[in-house]
Amino acid sequence: MQIDHKCAYGPCVCKVPEAGQYCSDYCLEADKLPAEGKPCSCEHEECNAEQSV
To answer: pLDDT tens digit string along 37-51?
Structure first.
């Protein structure tokens, strides 16, 4: 059974498959830099909806 979990990039709220860490290359690269309170910009629907709230 495959369980989804949150993307490893702190500001991101996207779900990724159990075998993965990041939802996109954007998050993989962004996680190498300080987030400094910036919202995620991976442009996936989950993050866009979260930022609209």
So the answer is: 788 999 998 887 776
